[in-house]
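// run 5 | inverse folding | seed 20
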């Protein structure tokens, strides 16, 4: 196995290195934002979702961004710490930090899940609604009901 040399990180100008590593990150964030826009377009054009689907997507998107921000924070911080540790020859310290980052990611995932579930209950209470089950429309099915049900929020409107 041939070891790659990272000496170009020392000799290259900072501007060139920033372009080389920042542009793929910027493109990935733009693709993620475009993904949300395309979701909104398709959901709005679905006859059985309409504005309720767009409203749900609009509520969930910021929550997704918060989860992504925390994941990137942990990942980038761990990456920098591992690089510093490996550069100074402290291999065990680098391995321990990776384990800690994975454990922290799992812990934050559980905490965010609990917070989001509590948040959803607060939204329902705020609007005086309740979670109900009603038949989910199936495209091409002309019957009045479907054996499949999806959770929906009932706010007292028909």
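// decoded
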């Amino acid at each position: 196995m041939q070891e790659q040399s990272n000496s170009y990180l020392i000799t290259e100008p900072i501007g060139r290195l920033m372009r080389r590593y920042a542009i793929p990150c910027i493109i990935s964030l733009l693709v993620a934002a475009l993904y949300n826009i395309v979701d909104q377009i398709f959901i709005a054009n679905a006859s059985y979702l309409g504005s309720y689907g767009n409203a749900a997507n609009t509520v969930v998107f910021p929550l997704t961004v918060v989860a992504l921000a925390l994941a990137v924070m942990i990942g980038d911080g761990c990456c920098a710490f591992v690089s510093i540790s490996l550069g100074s020859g402290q291999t065990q310290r680098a391995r321990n930090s990776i384990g800690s980052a994975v454990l922290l990611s799992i812990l934050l995932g559980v905490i965010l899940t609990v917070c989001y579930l509590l948040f959803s209950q607060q939204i329902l209470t705020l609007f005086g609604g309740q979670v109900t089950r009603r038949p989910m429309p199936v495209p091409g099915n002309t019957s009045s009901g479907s054996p499949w049900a999806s959770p929906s929020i009932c706010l007292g409107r028909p």
